[in-house]
């Protein structure tokens, strides 16, 4: 688990925006927190999985994918903003993310 | 650095710019559309990636995917790019065989049509399909399907990406269970055929007979890596065996890619529309690059 500082928030936001700009081949300036990942930029579950792996590697997270999956069922992620908030929660809480509910 | 051409199965999602990219190099795609239309006696020339992509017509989608793949491999070969290996992901095998000149273009179309007819005939009293599950381990997926007699693990794409195949009602049940279990994604695929299952044993046998009697299979010019058992082959007899088994046997794309990496392949070109193999490849460990059609310019160094 990692303390969420302003620096971490900025890092996560940058990684997510850069990721979708590259993978979905869109100009980063066209993205915002309300961008719908599937509807607006053709994102998919494999991209979501890839992002999780990126953050697991970067912050040395020990979290089961299933935990994230179960959390996502209760808190669906549709926009970039929602995804960033969830990623921050994952970084902060790890496997205890479900205890938040 | 060794190069492999990998051929996707029937595409359900296009990137959107595939015809435009292909047309920059040649008119192969349009020529093949016409050739296919004449041979099959159906009009595929109305295909338009945005407005008329045939996504609701399963067999036409298969023809279009095949045509895309054949056009890409033709372009590459015309630029003197020849692979050391070729491999077809599931039904991508037909385009791989065309690339290796084991079958002609129209023979490939005939194979697709015949396979579809035989499968439809043998499953006419069943509702079947395939499902995709992402985010669970193999053990999790096997546990979910253990009690479903009509389902099998049809393909392993990666450590956390699997496809199940079989009876539709059971797939739907497993999809719901997978979501409850924590899958990041679980959904029915846009196909009605239960590929890679024993439900197609009968169809597979009839398909083999058809191949032996009607198709002039030749040795492949390129080494083929089997999606089933990762053996390397090019001989006619092996091709016939693979064609038949591909219908009713589980495949393992993860192992197939790992085999090619073991053989020192460093570059893969996804010969077909969409980016499915490129995306799957991101979860496979190794030092390699996969070039989808949208990156053809970069691959060819243009």
* E-strand count of chain B: 11
What is the CA–CA distance across the termini of chain A? 18 Å
Please state roughly what percent of the residues of chain B sit in beta strands, choosing from under 5%, 5-15%, 15-25%, 25-35%, 35-45% or over 45%: 15-25%
The CATH architecture of chain A would be: Orthogonal Bundle
The gross shape of chain A turns out to be: globular
Largest beta sheet of chain B, briefly?
6 strands, mixed
Low-confidence stretches of chain A: none
Rg for CA atoms of chain B: 18 Å
Q: Report the total helices of chain A.
A: 4
Would you kindly provide a written description of the structure presented here, covering whatever features stand out?
The complex is a heterodimer of chains A (101) and B (302). Chain A has 101 residues and is mainly α. Chain A has one domain: ACP-like (Non-ribosomal Peptide Synthetase Peptidyl Carrier Protein, Chain A). Helix content of chain A is 55%, strand content 0%. In chain A, helix 1 (6-23) crosses helix 4. Chain A is globular, with a radius of gyration of 13 Å. Chain A starts with 5 loop residues before the first helix and ends in an 8-residue tail after the last helix. Chain B has 302 residues and is an alpha/beta fold. In chain B, the strands form 2 sheets. Chain B has a 6-stranded mixed β-sheet with strand order 8-7-2-1-10-11, with helices on both faces. A 5-stranded mixed β-sheet of chain B has the order 6-3-5-4-9. In chain B, strand 4 (151-158) and strand 5 (161-167) form a beta hairpin. The radius of gyration of chain B is 18 Å and the shape is globular. The two termini of chain B are 18 Å apart. The mean pLDDT of chain B is 94. The A-B interface holds A 25, 42, 44-50, 52-53, 64-70, 72-73 and B 13, 134-136, 140, 160-161, 179-185, 279-280, 282-283, 294.
């Amino acid at each position: 688990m990692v303390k969420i500082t302003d620096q971490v928030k900025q890092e996560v936001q940058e990684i997510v925006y850069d990721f979708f700009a590259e993978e979905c081949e869109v100009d980063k300036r066209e993205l915002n927190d309300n961008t719908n990942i599937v509807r607006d930029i053709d994102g998919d579950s494999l991209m979501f999985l890839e992002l999780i792996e990126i953050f697991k590697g970067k912050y040395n997270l020990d979290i089961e994918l299933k935990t994230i999956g179960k959390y996502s069922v209760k808190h669906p992620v549709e926009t970039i903003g929602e995804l960033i908030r969830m990623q921050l929660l994952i970084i902060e809480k790890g496997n205890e993310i479900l205890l938040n509910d | 650095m060794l190069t492999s051409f990998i051929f996707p199965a029937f595409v359900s999602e296009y990137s959107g710019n595939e015809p435009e990219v292909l047309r920059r190099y040649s008119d192969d795609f349009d020529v093949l559309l016409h050739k296919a239309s004449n041979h099959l006696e159906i009009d595929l020339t109305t295909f338009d990636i945005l407005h008329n992509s045939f996504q609701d017509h399963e067999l036409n989608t298969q023809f279009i995917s095949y045509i895309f793949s054949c056009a890409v491999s033709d372009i590459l070969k015309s630029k003197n790019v020849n692979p050391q290996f070729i491999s077809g992901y599931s039904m991508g095998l037909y385009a791989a065989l065309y690339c290796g000149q084991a079958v002609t273009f129209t023979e490939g179309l005939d194979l697709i049509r015949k396979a579809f007819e035989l499968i439809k005939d043998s499953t006419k009293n069943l509702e079947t399909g395939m499902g995709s599950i992402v985010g669970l381990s193999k053990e999790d997926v096997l546990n979910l399907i253990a009690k479903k007699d009509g389902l099998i693990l049809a393909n392993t794409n990666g450590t956390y990406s699997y496809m199940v195949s079989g009876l539709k009602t059971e797939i739907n049940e497993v999809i719901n269970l997978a979501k409850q279990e924590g899958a990041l994604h679980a959904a029915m695929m846009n196909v009605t055929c239960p590929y890679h299952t024993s439900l197609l044993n009968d169809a597979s046998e009839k398909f083999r007979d058809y191949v032996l009697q009607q198709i002039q299979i030749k040795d492949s010019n390129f080494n083929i890596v089997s999606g089933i058992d990762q053996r390397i082959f090019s001989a006619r007899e092996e091709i016939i065996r693979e064609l038949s088994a591909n219908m009713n046997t589980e495949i393992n794309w993860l192992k197939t890619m790992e085999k090619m990496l073991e053989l020192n392949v460093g570059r893969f070109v996804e010969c077909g529309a969409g980016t499915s193999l490129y995306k799957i490849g991101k979860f496979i460990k190794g030092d390699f690059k996969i070039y989808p059609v949208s990156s053809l310019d970069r691959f060819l160094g243009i």
